[in-house]
Amino acid sequence: MSDTSTIKAPTKRGDAIFAVLTSGASIFTLLMLGGIIASLVVASWPTITAFGFDFLFTANWDPPIDEYGALVPIYGTLVTSFIALIIAVPISFGIALFLTELSPPWLRRPLGTAIELLAAVPSIVYGMWGLLVFAPIFAKYVQVPLNATIGQVPVIGALFSGPPIGIGLLTAGVVLAIMIIPYIAAVMRDVFEVTPVMLKEAGYGMGCTTWEVVWKIVLPHTKVGVIGGIMLGLGRALGETMAVTFVIGNTNYLNDISLFSPGNSITSALANEFAEADAGLHTSALMELGLVLFLITFIVLVASKLLLAKLSSNGR
What we know:
- The chain is mainly alpha-helical and 316 residues long.
- It has helices at 13-51, 54-57, 71-102, 105-118, 123-148, 169-193, 197-205, 210-239, 242-247, 266-273, 281-315.
- Helix 6 (169-193) packs across helix 8 (210-239).
């Protein structure tokens, strides 16, 4: 008979070490996030005390006389991101629908790979292409017709007035849309593919068209994932820097609401001015711009989480 007196019970030392490491990683993430917020607030404090909330609603940005207002960059960031979503969401939906429901098998994989490769293109390449190739074509074949037609309509015509110079808010929004389409389309395609085949086959068996199956079966089943993909694209658009810097115009003026006018975004202002800013209010104003961008993305994240939670609860 074997001697069992030397057999030791397994210890929980490995579990304890694993728990410490994972807890430490979580705590480190929270500390890093808190450190970023604290450093932004501290660096922005001179501007916060000097201008208060007027910083958010003032369009004047004049470093030589130390007057700063973030309205133009905030407006440019929100407008270009909104334009990008308006364009990118329906196109991404069409791409995902084609890949999952309509595409022949021999085309599905190469087309899906090509769309995913678009996400790997560096943003500076999009920016150079937008400035040197897209902007002149856009000015001649899109802005001129828009100005001659919709630009003459009362009220909404103000959005398409002004000289067609190519660069501006609308151009930046279109370039952003091209950049975020691969992200949204890839997420939509993936969530469409997880829809149970039996549900779709049941719809087709009842005589539903492809659109009816997508609208009444696929979308209700995947709405949480679709919203998540859209929020991913919005976050990408809000934080984009180089491509927007090339085509937005980089001017801190808000004389009208025309989408043809050049403007600025928070990321473009930071990229253009941070390296040359002095150590006074100029740097503090730029740091507060970074803080504002952080708050905007945080608000978008919270709103998306609340929306997803509501959709999930309604789907149960």
